[in-house]
Amino acid sequence: MDRIAFLFPGQGSQIPGMGKDFAEEHADRVGKYYTVADEILGFPLSRVCFTGGEEDLRDTSITQPGVFLTSVVASAVLRDLGVRPAVVAGHSLGEYTALVHAGVLAWEDALRLVRLRGELMAAVNRRTPGRMAAVLGLTPERVDELCAETSSASGEVVAVANYNSPTQTVVSGSVAGVETFTAAALAQGARHVTPLKVGAPFHSPLMKEIEEEFGAHLDATPFATPALPVVANSSAGYVHSGDEARELLKRQLSSPVLWQQTLELLVKEDVAAFVEVGPGRVLTNICRGAAPKVPAMTVGTVRQAEQVLERLTGRQP
């Protein structure tokens, strides 16, 4: 099998019914994940994922565990099918799934951290309502400049949250900050500034207030040395130890996701295919725009897992 990268999605990739067919068709393999997750969280996450509507899945404290668990289950199915990555990375929340796949975190511990992360982020949003928006048609450098200019002129918080590709940059901050930035970006020639359906101003300075509390829980959680290469969000470099992984997750809360730089690293190191493992196809679409020479595939359903198996190995399940 050629050298492939598993990419794990973050919040915003959730879809109603996510993971249901995995649970139905691979019950012996993945049923335990849902049973244990429901027990750990104290509510039926599996039912929300399988039968909940878009509104049910919009709550950050539910969305994050749901996307995480669906990605863990999808990766377990791929592992059983014999599809193994040479390297892994995850977008924002997806970094936790990447660390699980690389053996750095036990999935149960990661689930607890993800649940707490979502709760703390949602609490920030209640205290200081925030917003995120995707900017198309301006360079990342110009978006950076406009964020600084907007913050300086208005006193509101707005900063780059995700460097997704050369043509897509995501900003995050207070509602007023993002609204002011949006007007300025459109005036400067941005094609679109699209609000994202997320529940908090992720990866912005507004998240600094939860770093200490969340950091204490990270410090109390066991982290192991990666068993395969993992690329971190906030450095776009490899994680070399459990301690480094822990510190990078602390930094990730209020630092931008260096996704474009992550993809550039993987392309430079001759990754032959990107496989997005989890619900939705956000990362697949980004890859096809940012690294069009590398095939990008999605595994969010059983059928897609079977298609990827055949495409990458020539085998059928």
Compose a concise summary of this entry.
The chain is an alpha/beta fold.
Task: Give the arrangement of secondary structure elements.
Elements: E1 4-8, H1 20-25, H2 27-41, H3 45-51, H4 60-81, E2 87-90, H5 94-101, H6 107-127, E3 130-136, H7 140-154, E4 158-165, E5 168-174, H8 175-187, E6 192-195, H9 211-219, E7 230-231, H10 242-252, H11 259-268, E8 273-277, H12 282-290, E9 296-299, H13 302-313
Parallel strand pairs: 1-2, 1-8, 2-7, 8-9
Antiparallel strand pairs: 3-5, 3-6, 4-5
Helix pairs in contact: 2-4, 2-6, 3-4, 4-5, 4-6, 4-13, 7-8, 9-10
Task: Outline the structure in words.
- There is one protein chain.
- This protein has 317 residues and is of the alpha/beta class.
- The protein contains 13 helices and 9 strands.
- Helix 12 links the parallel strand 8 and strand 9.
- Helix 2 packs across helix 6 and helix 9 packs antiparallel against helix 10.
- It is globular and about 55 Å long.
